[in-house]
Design goal:
6 helices; 72% helix; elongated; mainly alpha
Length: 158
């Protein structure tokens, strides 16, 4: 089961990242346009980003638990994040950005649910959090993708 989850981490990352980016665009547009459709869009995209990151986190944890160092020891021993060692620097940053983004996504999802229920969260706070989320996951996703598909690891480039 863990192998199946680990193998599907890359596929699971796309929907939360895309939802976060589109949610940030909608949140920024809501600063200039006062239409309920625009605020509905960022609210729904924020909720979708959070809900779709849950399987991404599960598959990412499974993928990280399957990584081994040069000595054949697991990168993770009873923890969720890899040990913060120089050899783990890139994957540690990838994980830290992903988990930090999940926390921001949870806050945005709660604010989005509040908006859908008739609340009026601060538009500037929403825009700031949405942009922060898109940057966290965009940079984190780039680091993870480069680690998996980069010239050093992807056999197609050799």
């Amino acid at each position: 089961m863990m192998e199946f989850l680990a193998q599907n981490h890359a596929a699971m990352t796309h929907l939360p990242v895309a939802s976060a980016i589109l949610g940030a665009v909608a949140a920024l547009a809501a600063l200039a346009v006062s239409r309920k459709e625009v605020t509905w869009a960022w609210a729904m995209l924020s909720i979708i980003a959070f809900l779709t990151v849950l399987p991404t986190l599960a598959t990412g944890i499974a993928a990280a638990k399957g990584r081994f160092n040069e000595d054949g020891k697991p990168y993770i021993q009873g923890a969720i994040l890899v040990t913060d060692l120089p050899a783990n620097e890139r994957i540690f940053r990838h994980q830290l950005l992903g988990v930090s983004g999940a926390v921001v996504a949870a806050i945005l999802a709660l604010l989005g649910a509040s908006r859908l229920r008739g609340g009026t969260p601060n538009r500037y706070l929403i825009a700031l959090l949405a942009v922060v989320l898109a940057v966290l996951w965009g940079v984190g996703g780039h680091l993870g993708g480069e680690d998996l598909w980069g010239a050093d690891t992807f056999p197609g480039f050799h």
